[in-house]
Structure formats: C-alpha cells, structure tokens
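Researcher: Quick sanity check before group meeting.
Model: Go ahead. Protein one:
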Amino acid sequence: MPKYAIEHSEIPTVAIAGTDATFPVRRIYCVGRNYAEHAVEMGSDPDRDPPFFFMKPNNTVIPDGANFPYPPKSKNVHFEMELVVAIGKGGADIPQSRANDHIYGYACGLDMTRRDLQLAMREKGRPWEVGKAFDASAPCAEIQPASDIGHPSAGAIWLKVNGETKQSADISDLIWNVPETIEYLSGLFELQPGDLIYTGTPAGVGPIVKGDLMEGHIDGVGHITIKVI
C-alpha cells in the first residue's frame, strides 16, 4: 500500500442499475453546443463545426435524488439535461465503427452551469471553469449497462422544473452523435475506463432557484431527480 503524505479523497463513483457494483469516475468530458437549437439560443452558429469540449472534475458528480446546493458567487444558475456516456474500455483514435465497443453504458445527467460567470469569462476569452466546474455541477443518475439497453441513438430527452417542461427534444438531434463524438474526442485525449462524456443539451436551458425540483428523462435510459437547496 502506498504511503500518502496527506489524507486523500476516495474515488467518486456512480451507481450501476441492477447491481451493487459502482462505476469509478476518472474524468468528465462535456461537449459544448451539440444541439442546433441550443447553439442558436446561446448566440452561436448551428453549423456542423468540429465539436469542442470542456471538463469537470470527477468529484463534481452527485447521484440521482441528491440535493444540489445553489453555488456561491452566482445569481444565474442554469440546468442542462444531457445523455451521459460511460466509457468501459480505453483507447486513442477510436474509429466510429468501433466506438460502441468502448461504451460501458448510458445515464441521465445534468450539466449545471453558473451562466453569468460562464458568459463573463467567454466575453473576455477566458476559461470556463468557474462557470462549469464547480462543486456538485455534474448530477448523474445510475448507469444503464449497454449490455442491457443496447446503444440508444434516438429517444425523447426532456427536463421539467416543478412539473413544467423546460427542455424537450430527441437524442437523434445531436449534431455530433455518440460514435462521432468518441472518434473526435479520442483523437485529442486517450480515453480510459471510468471516463464520462456529457454529450450536450437541447434548447430550453434556463435558471433555477432554491426550492426547485428538476426532473429529467431519456427514453430507454432512465430518469433523474434533483432538488435545489
């Protein structure tokens, strides 16, 4: 056993449906503006430019049913409902035709965003971490193994806040689908088991306040419920 100079944190994990085993989270990659209508609402061109990515620390994951603490230094925190891909087999330069072989499973997730801070950084050409990589910013429901559900490429994705539908689309609307995303991302980084990919959010993102209840769903994948405190 290695001897550490200081106390270290345990590896963050996500529950796996149908088992008491958990999925250890290594890195969290997020795809930016991967639905055309969301790109438009964020003031960007919806053309099929190469995908771009940002990251969240692995310890920003919180489970389905958890409370989301409204983060400090922001007055405009947004929800972003997303399909999450869990990588079970690593690799670099993975072709689209082999991408599914590297996927362990899928989950419902939320890319929580301090929008005011993100936009302030964007306007100055600075990194987005303060807007995207804060504590508890990556809620993720249990992972459904691909061996059980296959590899969904179509199906409704929606999010409700206090029972009111805010986002509604289909994962087939992704500008860059999952195999294409894996091919491109694995050309930039060598993917490893334990990586999560948040694949982007549909249009309709908006603010939450303390007391709100967020409920998200993806057909064939599952459901996630998070309360803002």
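Researcher: Fine. The other one?
Model: Protein two, sequence then structure:
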Amino acid sequence: MGLKCGIVGLPNVGKSTIFNAITSGCAEASNYPFCTIDPNVGIKPVNDKRLYKLQEIVNPEKVTPAYVEFVDIAGLTKGASAGEGLGNKFLSHIRNVDLIIQVIRVFKENSVVHVEGGINPVRDIGIINTELALSDIEILSKHIQKLEKMAKSGDKAALSNLDFLKNIDRQLSETGNIINKEFSETEKSLLKSLGIISSKPVIYVINVDEQMLSKDFSNDEIVGILNIAEPENIPVIRLCAKLEEELSSLSPEDKDAFLKDYGLESSALDIVASVSFKLLGLISFFTAGKQEVRAWEIKNGWKAPQAAGTIHSDFEKGFIRAEVISYDDFIKAGGSESNAAKMGLLRLEGKDYIVRDGDIMHFRFSV
C-alpha cells in the first residue's frame, strides 16, 4: 500500500542517524544545519513475529514482510512556513507523507550544536508544530477564498467544504492543532488533497543518550514532552539514535545479545515501524506456501476481494471465495492446512468477509 512516514524535527536532533539505522543506509549525518536538503528515502520491514513463525513451519524459498517507507526530511527552523532555511521546499516534502515522526532531542552533547542554543524539548516541539500550523493556515486561507466564490454561485459541495475548512482553520489559528481528527472519508480526502500536515497522525520519538535508556520517564525534559503528547493521544517512543545505528549493522544473534546488555527486548525502531503501521489503521494478512510466505498490508475493515486485489487486480475482479485460517488456529493445527480443515478451523468466506489481522488466506478467482 506504500505506507510513507516522514522523519521531521529541528536540525541536529538525530534524524539522519535514525534514518541510517532504519535503512542501514548512508544518509549524511553531520554537525551543521541543513545537512539534508533533498529527502532520503528508505524502507524498513515490519518486525512481525508471526511471519517468522510461519517461515519456521512452512520453510519457504522466500519470505517477504510488510514494509514501511521512511523519508528523512531536512531540519525545519523558525520561519520555515515563510520560506526561511529552505522551509517551503522542506514543507512540501512533508505534505506527501502519511504519518509524521517528530524527532525530539533530549541527549546533551556539547560537540553537537543545537540550532536554538540549548536543549529544551518543549520549545522545540512548539517551533515545529507552529511552523506546520502556519503553513496549513496559509493553504487553507487560499482555498477558503476559492470556495467562497464558488459557494456564492450556489455550489452545494463548495458550501459544505467551506464550513468544514473554516472550522479547521479556526482550530489551527486558536490552538495550533486540529482538535478532532475523527473525519469522514470525504473530509479525509479533502484534507489529503490540500496537503494539510496538521491532520496527519504523529509519533514523538525522543532521542536520548545511552544512560537515559535504562531510566524511567521521570526526567524533566521527558515529562514535559509527555504533558504535550498525552492529551493529544500521541505515542511517545524513546530511543538512542547512536545505539540504533550500531544495532542495524549487527547479525540477528549479536543484535539480541546487544539488546540484552541494555535490558531491552527489541529495537526501538522496530517499535516505531509497528506503531506507525497500527496508527494508520493497517493490519496484515498472510499467504503461506513453499514458494513464499508473505505479509500483505491492508486497511482494517477491508473485505476479502479488496485484500485479494493487493496481490493482483485479477484476484479482485474475478474473486470467488477465500480459504481462511486464523494465525492462532493455524498454530493450533500444528501448522498444517489439512489438519486445520479436519479440525473445522479452515473457513470458506465470500465477498462480504471482513479480513482480520493475522488471517492466512488463499484466494479462488476466475477471470
């Protein structure tokens, strides 16, 4: 489906280091503002333990996980919405992503300059959010003027959209954010077509030093971030960018040992990918055969023909039925489709079946 997450923040907060860790890439990470100008793009697999359990059972020739695409967008500064620091160019990159990962610097390192002169996460969040809101307000203002002219001629659709966008504009002007993000599909489509950044889901990623990984969230800077995030239901994930970059170069065995040394169960970036996936309302279903075991990402609530269409458009056009075993039932049946059928765990589902997370599916179709 092409899930795309934009990594944003002030300059020198660790965005490019995090991007390198995500992709095992080579995005330039230097100690000066605007090191990144054109966005770097890379992908990271969603670390789904169910997929790798299926790999053990089926022993396929190939395994393909679901992927999240990450875009490393250059650092924003005060005045970005007015074009400062190449701000207009950077903001245009953010408009094209589905979800925003805002990196917030908490680590203290004198050799890495802070564009605002010192560590203050609450201030930094305020700068980024203000610039995004101001940029959105400018776009909304122009479109509202256009709709007002159309509404005068009796255009009902324009009138309806005008009321909605005026409400969004007022919220951004008064609070700096959009208070209610529960939109209808039509409203979502409108905001997406306009590139309204403030309507996108957000994750706060706190970049700490290694010593802060093992501590609780009692640090004053982190408490300040939580006080902003919790009322807005924004997920907060703590990581050490340098550590994650080291992890990305290790073998799976060495990676596990490395994490244990820090008392961690998994990479923070694996958590970021999984949370991004869920925050956008995505789920996975699986296909499992000797040639390939694969996770397919779809929107939660999709019906079987839509899910089939992610594999090939012919599957959706000629959909007849789906053979479905839930992941838990597949494990219960010892990883055997024939056992699952004998136990009554294999189901035949039609066009109205709503796919569930973890379904193992085989589609019957005719073209």
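Researcher: One line on it for the slide.
Model: Residues 25-37 have pLDDT under 50 and may be disordered.
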